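Weekly modeling sync, notes
Attendees: S.R. (lead), two postdocs, one rotation student

Agenda item 3: backlog of single-chain predictions. S.R. asked that every request posted to the team notebook include the full sequence so nobody has to chase files. The rotation student volunteered to paste the first one in as an example of the format we agreed on. Action items at the bottom.

Example entry:
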Amino acid sequence: MLHFNSNHFSIYWHRPTNFCTEKHSKCRYPKGEASWYGSRYHGRKTSSGERYNKHEMTAAHKTLPFGTKVKVTNLDNNEFVIVRINDRGPFVGDRIIDVSEAAARELEFHNKGVGHVKIEVLNSEADLASAAGFSFDVASFSDFALASDVTSDLANSRN
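Predicted structure, as returned to the notebook:
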């Protein structure tokens, strides 16, 4: 993204910071047990009003707003998925998230029923791109023409 003021031009990318440490009581990336739900609920309305589809990458969380994108990482194998919150739950024990059947298969805990996971809320497009594995170089320019040339070169390099 190119931003500028009268004296300075920048191309930048924001990366999220992990604020989760053992000393913090409010962990940005909580860890805990995840479960999944599938065929029994397929086609039923979720708390958000949409129909649950066991083939989509969705999840239930007790407090996150509907539509929130979350990266769920299986801590036993480092597999991850990005899901969208569209339901409320889980309501069993201390589980922190219920994922769709498709997500549980990708995370490779479908057969076990539960998995030990970390969840990361993706607050911005930058967080989402970073979670999906994109990385970006950062450049800063005092000359608008040079910044424009680099931006054009970057755009053309995608083709």
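Discussion: group reviewed the output briefly. The chain has three helices and nine strands.
Action items: rotation student to repeat for the remaining queue; S.R. to check formatting next week.
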